[in-house]
Design goal:
CATH topology: Neuraminidase
CATH superfamily: TolB, C-terminal domain
Shape: globular
Number of domains: 1
CATH architecture: 6 Propeller
Order of helices and strands: EEEEEEEEEEEEEEEEEEEEEEEEEEEEEE
Number of strands: 30
Number of helices: 0
Radius of gyration: 19 Å
Distance between the termini: 38 Å
Strand content: 35-45%
Strand order of the largest sheet: 13-14-15-16-22
């Protein structure tokens, strides 16, 4: 996908709910189809950062307030292209917040946002090597810059997470040749310290495409979706003396998800994972892109055997078009991003079918709302949500068409 150039319009937060938009050629303001929600939408402030609101984009949402939707209807964008001197990678995939309690360093602090890049500066898939850091004050920098060396290195995926003990985990799915005719490789998981130094490379994965973490600080369980085998595995992580991290006990807990090469998406298979530690029993949700469905795996943190996909949760051919990332919202609903590589023929039909949608649904499989983040198909990718101040949450959405993240503070008390 060729990324379009955009002109910039500065957005800054007003004293009350809403935003102030500096006049400019591309300004369209924050759009809402539900005036009742305006008072609930307070934009997260990235002070001094240029943000883009594209007039060609439609921020359309269908919201059922009685079911407690968390999706915003307005947004702002922040560029994710790594600043110089790093190579300006393109196509952001994964996004993660640095949580409270994370040990700060010169490169990373609680409240920062991390974004992994899948393509290089020539926009070739599976060749990106950088993770971009976005500070709460709007400053951007390169947190990590690796090397492109298939079959293990290059192509940083949506498998991006942060351990409270002070580590960042990111998956790699390298392009075999570094050109447009290359094929995806097995890859690896990288474990980085809080200054972006590589401390461990883990190879016992098969195309780590996304991950979810059950974090207990000195120990953690990491769930990884393998896009080259159609499986989900659980890894045991421990942090010992001198902050030494180790990975053990790889356990396959699910299999049978459709997977394979894809002309527009490079490869498709099981992608987004969301772990619900509050549910009884604990549940891992899985977005299966090729199957165009969402599944759940009960007792995923304790399972000793592999299930065939798990239990079907959400099957919606109207609103699902190749679900990718998956996130659990504070209101108990789930959000998934549509990659538009599956179920898009005939072309999408507005208003029920929109390009690059974030879809919200209940954990019982009931559709709640949708938000189109770009007029071009295939732009929606990574999703991250963390608690904010009282009754709020911070949400970050990846737009890999124009290389931005969309950041918003939303009401989480309903």
């Amino acid at each position: 996908m060729q990324h379009k150039a955009v002109k910039l319009a500065t957005i800054r937060v007003a004293n009350g709910p809403g935003v102030t938009v500096t006049p400019g050629e591309t300004n369209v303001g924050l759009r809402t189809r539900n005036p009742k929600l305006i008072g609930r939408l307070v934009c997260y402030c990235l002070c001094g950062v240029a943000a883009t609101l594209l007039p060609v984009r439609q921020a359309m949402a269908q919201i059922d307030n009685d079911l407690g939707s968390i999706l915003p209807t307005g947004f702002l964008d922040v560029s994710t292209i790594p600043p110089a001197p790093a190579s300006p990678d393109l196509n952001p995939y994964g996004v993660a917040f640095v949580p409270t309690g994370f040990p700060p360093s010169s490169k990373l602090s609680p409240g920062d946002i991390l974004v992994s890049n899948f393509n290089n500066r020539k926009n070739i898939q599976g060749t990106g090597i950088t993770i971009t850091r976005v500070r709460p004050d709007g400053e951007t920098s390169t947190f990590f810059q690796g090397t492109f060396a298939p079959p293990t290195d290059g192509g940083l995926t949506t498998a991006l997470g942060v351990l409270r003990a002070g580590f960042v985990v990111v998956g790699q799915l390298p392009n075999s040749s570094g050109n447009k005719n290359g094929t995806p490789q097995q890859g690896s998981l990288l474990f980085l310290d809080n200054n972006g130094n590589l401390v461990l490379k883990y190879f016992n994965v098969n195309g780590p495409w996304d991950l979810a973490i059950d974090d207990h600080v000195d120990t953690a369980k990491i769930f990884v979706s393998n896009v080259l085998s159609g499986t989900v595995v659980r890894l045991e992580v421990s942090v010992g003396l001198n902050n030494v991290i180790s990975v053990s006990n790889p356990t396959e807990i699910a299999h049978g998800y459709a997977f394979g090469p894809n002309a527009s998406a490079f490869v498709v298979g099981p992608t987004g994972l969301a772990f619900d530690a509050q549910a009884q029993p604990h549940v891992l949700y899985v977005a299966s892109t090729s199957d165009n469905q969402i599944f759940k795996i009960p007792n995923a943190d304790m399972a000793t055997s592999s299930v065939d996909k798990g239990t079907l949760v959400y099957d919606d051919p109207v609103h699902l078009h190749g679900p990718l990332a998956l996130a659990l919202a504070p209101n108990g609903n789930l959000l998934t991003s549509n990659g538009d590589a599956i179920n898009v023929t005939p072309p999408l039909s507005p208003p029920n079918q929109l390009p690059s949608e974030i879809v919200e649904f209940t954990n019982g499989g009931q559709f709640i709302g949708q938000l189109s983040i770009d007029s071009a198909p295939g732009a929606a990718f990574g999703i991250a949500i963390v608690p904010g101040s009282v009754n709020t949450a911070r949400i970050a959405l990846v737009n890999d068409d124009d290389n931005t993240i969309i950041v918003q503070t939303v009401n989480a008390g309903e």
